[in-house]
């Protein structure tokens, strides 16, 4: 629906996912069975079957992986920009850069928000602030965030048609040929800087949650390590040139499930925060809009309300 409404460039091709740790693989299998119960076109395939679908990728022949046929990928920055443009075209206002300072509450109701450009009258405020959620609302719904390194290459010929989630990294190729590689560390589920023996200086740098590396040497060290791992599975990446290397920080609720709904101790406040923000944005946006505009509460969000933490 959104693909046609706002002209989002989605690359549909499906996805592969598997894990090195047996416990994680067991959980993945259970999740597949649940999705199959809802009619989702997803099933387990072998490494050889995956190679037939992705001939440029070297899969472990012994691996069993999930193949989700209906998954797609987007350029999240492009999607956000198109949403903003559509908002303005529909008469909405986008204020940027603006810093939120606090909410002005009278008689236990929000009447305005105080910002770096002054007060803005409002009787309802939606907080979709990711990592800053706890600090802005003085609540505790998120656990410590872990960083992920994201590599963005210069456009190259088509080598991958699907989103591929491997034990130590994930990779997909956009329609313009750009390859996106995201990695934590070579140890499955280990965050950047969390491996044993990480120097104190490195951990101190991460404490400030930087979005880039402090110098080119450190950036090169990390990017080359990740690219080398990716090249083992996709040899054609050996000639690729990197365009951008960034550090991304993921908002992670304590139970790793979305937190969506009214914050009851602050009337007029609505919260929407989760890890899989881009993936869930279409359905969450539709449900949140329905709840706010119609004054209703949908059972689809019943298990994700903020009051399980607040």
TrEMBL record:
Residues 3-289 form the FAD dependent oxidoreductase domain. Transmembrane segments: none annotated. InterPro entries: FAD-dep_OxRdtase, FAD/NAD-bd_sf. SUPFAM superfamilies: FAD/NAD(P)-binding domain. The keyword Cell inner membrane does not apply. One of its GO terms (molecular function) is oxidoreductase activity. GO terms for cellular component: cytoplasm. The keyword Secreted does not apply. Keywords: Oxidoreductase. Gene3D superfamilies: D-Amino Acid Oxidase, subunit A, domain 2, FAD/NAD(P)-binding domain. This is FAD dependent oxidoreductase domain-containing protein. Pfam families: DAO (PF01266).
